[in-house]
Amino acid sequence: xxxxxxxxxxxxxxxxxxxxxxxxxxxxxxxxxxxxxxxxxxxxxxxxxxxxxxxxxxxxxxxxxxxxxxxxxxxxxxxxxxxxxxxxxxxxxxxxxxxxxxxxxxxxxxxxxxxxxxxxxxxxxxxxxxxxxxxxxxxxxxxxxxxxxxxxxxxxxxxxxxxxxxxxxxxxxxxxxxxxxxxxxxxxxxxxxxxxxxxxxxxxxxxxxxxxx
Length: 213
What we know:
The protein is mostly beta strands and about 210 residues long. The chain folds into two domains: about 1-85, Ribonuclease Inhibitor (Leucine-rich repeat, LRR (right-handed beta-alpha superhelix)), CATH 3.80.10; about 85-100 and about 105-213, Leucine-rich repeat, LRR (right-handed beta-alpha superhelix) (Alpha-Beta Horseshoe). Helix content is about 0%, strand content about 25%. The protein has strands spanning about 5, 15, 30, 35-40, 50-55, 60, 75-80, 85, 100, 105-110, 125, 130-135, 150, 155-160, 170-175, 180-185, 205. An eight-stranded parallel beta sheet has the order 1-3-5-7-9-11-13-15, with no helix packed on it. It has a six-stranded parallel beta sheet with strand order 8-10-12-14-16-17, with no helix packed on it. The chain starts with a strand and ends in an 8-residue tail after the last strand. About 35% of the residues are buried.
């Protein structure tokens, strides 16, 4: 019974074969670092044993299928450095045990859904270098396990929610190259962040902007 498929770092081309969806016992799928193109198979929700899914550094296009968010036992997902587009689904809240979510360097657009706060065990979230807009949800303050948060290089606007001050495990924050405004929070993890975390947000203010590492 196949539980792990590791084909990362090769020169695989073409689309991801939908036949993979029949591997219901698969625990780990590593296809990152190839030249795969096309879309993520919609039948992926058949892979109910999957815990680790790495498809980063390929040439995947289209949207993230809604069926992905039905895999509620996933622990780690990395789709970084592709050309995935479309909205960020509010169904993300179903991923109750997810620990790592890396969607950086794609073309995702629209708002970050408030329902992302349902990811209570998430430690690493990277949405950098996309086309996300709207404000940073106040509900981010409910993601109590966050250690790494990168929202840089998007079109986010509004104020940095003070709710993030309660994220006591947060060690890395990058909100640079957005359109944020207002005063930078000063409590909790913000005591340890320097101006490097907030670069190129011309309407932000606060003493943190004078702090260099």
